[in-house]
Amino acid sequence: MTADVPNPRVQTAALWLATTPDHEKPRPVMPKLRQRFALTALEASLAMAEAALIRARTG
After folding, report:
1. Residue ranges per domain, the chain?
2. Which of 3, 12, 25, 32 has its CA 20 to 30 A from that of 19?
3. For every one of its 59 residues, what pLDDT tens digit does the chain have, with 9 covering 90 and above?
4. For the whole model, what pTM was predicted?
């Protein structure tokens, strides 16, 4: 994965994480991201970081 060509699974996971209400998210979220979106641990971490950016941009 490179910054120029985002991984679509990471982007999809990030969008899901950013738009799902906190009370509906499983705890812990990392294993669920990995399972639901077939991500590696690194990809799940990137999705979590991207979700934080999405939430920050949307206010």
Report:
1. 8-58
2. 3
3. 445 557 999 999 999 999 999 999 999 999 999 999 999 999 999 999 999 999 999 97
4. 0.86
The residue among 35, 33, 38 whose CA lies nearest residue 50 is 33
Separation CA 33–CA 57 (nearest Å): 22
Integer Cα distance of 4 and 45 in angstroms: 18
What burial class does residue 24 get, using C-beta atoms within 10 Å of its C-beta: 0-12 exposed, 13-18 middle, 19+ buried?
exposed
Q: Is 16 exposed, middle or buried (0-12, 13-18, 19+ CB in 10 A)?
A: middle
Nearest of 2, 56, 28 to residue 46 by alpha carbon: 2
